[in-house]
Amino acid sequence: MIPDFIKRSHILQAISHLRKIDVPARRCAKKFVLLHNGSQYPAKYVLAIAHEMATGRELDPETFSGGDETNRFLRNLGFDIVRIHAEATSSATLNADTPAKAHPASCKKCKAALIRTIKAMFGDVRQNWLSDTPVRLEDYTGTPQGKPLASIHAALAGLRGHQDFIRRRLLPPCDLLIPALNCLVEFDENQHFTHARKIALSLYPDTLSLGFPRKRWQTLCAQIDAHDSTPPYRGEQRAWYDTLRDFLPRMQKMNPTVRIHMGEFAWCKASSEEIRARLREIIPSAKSKDQRSSTRSNASVTIATAIPEVEDYLSRNDALAVLKNILSSIEPQPDILLLPGGFFYNADKPTSDTLQAISSQIQKVMPTSGKDTIVVTGLDCRESKDQLALAISRKGVIAAGRKFYPTPKDIASGILAAESRRALELGYSRMFTHKGHSFFLAVCYDLFGIKRGKDKSGIVEKRDEMNPGVHAVLGCIHRFCRKGKGPSGETNFARHGIAGASKAWGCPVFATAHFVKRLIPKSWPSGVFWRLGKKSTTEWTFKANGISPIKTSELLLKGRCSVRIQHFELA
Question: How confident is the model at residue 406 (pLDDT cuts 50, 70, 90)?
Answer without folding.
Answer: very high
